[in-house]
Amino acid sequence: MTQIATSLWFATQAEEAARFYCATIPGAALGEIIRIPPGGPGPAGGVLLVEFALNGTPMLAMNGNPGEAFTNAVSLSALCDNQAELDQVWDALLVGGQAQACGWLKDRYGVAWQLVPEALPRLMKAGNEAQRGRVIAALMQMVKIDAAALEAAFNAS
Known about the structure:
This protein has helices spanning 14-24, 83-94, 119-124, 129-139, 147-155; strands at residues 6-10, 29-35, 47-54, 57-63, 75-80, 98-99, 104-106, 112-117. It is of the alpha/beta class. The chain has two domains: 1-68, 2,3-Dihydroxybiphenyl 1,2-Dioxygenase, domain 1, CATH 3.10.180; 69-157, 2,3-Dihydroxybiphenyl 1,2-Dioxygenase, domain 1. The strands form two sheets. It has a four-stranded mixed beta sheet, covered by helices on one side.
């Protein structure tokens, strides 16, 4: 096996979504756009598949799914280097989407995302049970994750 990629199945917005994600996620790159051949499924020349990468992770966006909606059972998780990066990506993905809880949102295409500051996994691997418990308690009160508030909860006495 040479590669595993996440495939997102859209009704008709595969290229639009891939371009949006590549413009939104730092380190993303648009790859090949594969068109429907004559006699193929759908109008010849339409977009069938778009290859792209999100910070080096291979992704596929595919058209041809008129009835299956995305669910929270599968999400894309982005570990952000700092609060500014998290805020920038959150704000962009949220346009036309819906905020949920604990760093989760659904974007305009219905894809679920978890935007996590590097502080969260770092704090959950450090300290003692009481500190980690305070971090989780703080996290459960958040919609968009606030790294400084997590740090403050960890360091509270």
